[in-house]
What does this fold into?
Amino acid sequence: MTTTARAESGPVLGTGALTAERLLQRLDMRVVKRLDGFFQGDFRTRFLGAGVDFADLRDYQPHDDVRHIDWNVTARMDSPYVREYVADRELTAWLLIDRSASMRFGASPVGGSSASADPTSGAGSNRSKALAVTEFMVVIARLLTRNGNRVGAALFDERVEHVIEPKNGRNQVLRLAHELLRPAPTRSAAATDLATAFGTAAKSITRRSLVIVLSDFISMPGWERPLALLARRHEVVCIRFVDPSEREIAAAGVQVFEDLETGEQLTVDTSDPTFRARYRAAVEERDTALARSLARLGLDLLTVSTTEQPADAIVRLSERRRRAVR
It folds into this structure.
């Protein structure tokens, strides 16, 4: 089972609903401004390091990446030479955003009341995974576009449903937020297929980019190879969103659980300590398997709880990326 309760899609945006403009204003005032000083300098170097534009040749040094060796020059000079690259000041970032049914799990679905879905109300706010992704996306997109970078997005469930081409500026962030605040389209009972999203991205993103995956990583198997192909050309950052209540089942007697993606139902006695222990073990096993799969690809995983504020999550992400490039 992928989730432990049914989540409604929420009312369509309107009076009293959380709008893209209101969300961006709140996050601009209380989150983005707080992070401005933290991200001074070239945002690209936080994630990618060297750029892709050829600058010069020089003698090979022991610490150099062997992939940068120019074998033609090395053969002619009978001594190893490496290509040097300069950083490209304009970053193109792609956000691969999971819009599957399991992402709607949580107390406050996207499109719900702004009173219950205030992204600045502090840790422990009632929010679905989808709303947590939306808040995170708005902050990271705003930080990137304020520095003149371009941000695009691909929204997917069992297939890629919508692509927003990269642009810069505040209006692009508003467009992204507006799309994510729309109720997700109703699909047939099918599980998320990350392999399709990764494969589509690998084929369609031609320019070297920063690719940020925002998902709960509840998916059909077989996504590792498409992700590996994507990571060969692009810098990939994987961010997993989790809800604490889907990871620990409370003792509440006999309950009916429904898989939000397939509609499969299961009746269980949650008061049974053996069942709760088996459930915890299954959660831990899935966590371990995911971490190992990404580690084999040379990718790191940042896990973000729906109770965590986007500023704290982005600070953790930046600090982890800094350590990775040292």
